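Ticket opened by: R.M.
Priority: normal
Category: complex prediction / small molecule

The reporter submitted a protein together with nicotinamide-adenine-dinucleotide and asked that the result be attached to this ticket for the collaborator who will pick it up next week. Submitted input follows.
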Amino acid sequence: MSIQHIAVIGAGTMGNAIAQICALAGINVALLDVSDEALEKGVATLTANLERQVRKESISPKDKQDALARISPGTDYAVLSAAGLVIEAATENLELKKRILKQIDSVVSDHCIIATNTSSLSITELAAVVTQPSRFIGLHFFNPVPLMALVEVIRGIQTSDVTHALAIKLAEHIGKSAVTVRNSPGFVVNRILCPMINEAIFVLQEGLACAKDIDTGMQLGCNHPIGPLALADLIGLDTMLAIMESFHQGFDDPKYRPPQLLKEMVAAGYLGRKSGRGFYIYQ
Ligand code: NAD
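Result attached by the on-call engineer:
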């Protein structure tokens, strides 16, 4: 694996976990966010996750220390000049991501690959923002990143074979299984998964059953490991709303419209686990 230095943009739910698994795989990671507060929260989360892994004896205390030593949190994009790969994992918003990508593009070296962890936005459209779109690709990790084996690798129409091969190599190096997917809103897994979660929110909104019974129904009736509403809380309700809006717009099909209840909850700041309240209350 030739990439020794990477950068992850965004230290939220996904970014801090991507930094964690890459650091555990021996890669130096610059972890960037907009504020020291966001970085402190991200580092606290990944440290707690590493400690949990030590308790479960899946890693040693030294592995944890080494991984933490490889992660450099910061807010200054200048450090990206040393990166062989930058993974953008900031908030799911097209205009914000385009702004961030331009900022990344202005600093990185010519041989750097730029990847995005977007759940639903067009890789082709995002690639068009950078100077070398052939070196741009989608690397879609799944939540919770340390536990989920899959990475979807999404090629925009501009993505080169070399970039694609490097992305697959990185995924394998950090212990993930990669599937290659053509660019389309939500790619493959979220295209199937998110409308199911969206429908569960409609079911709750219509009062057909309470949240717990909807989730129990899907767990015991379909053998899902987690109910759709608990999964929405894990994903983040703002991210869920952004995904469904992107589907609705991208496919121009009303079957993807987000329920009013989801919009109301996001407007209220009920974002799921990350805010302490979603369909359930978290300590
Ligand atoms: P999040 O809300 O938990 O974290 C987003 C982070 O981005 C925050 O820490 C925020 O401060 C930071 N950010 C915002 N603007 C920034 C900027 N200009 N520069 C640097 N950082 C900035 O969101 P998340 O769930 O981690 O999602 C991040 C990306 O990963 C999104 O594109 C999302 O669609 C995708 N994704 C999410 C999941 C999931 O289950 N949550 C799964 C796969 C992919």
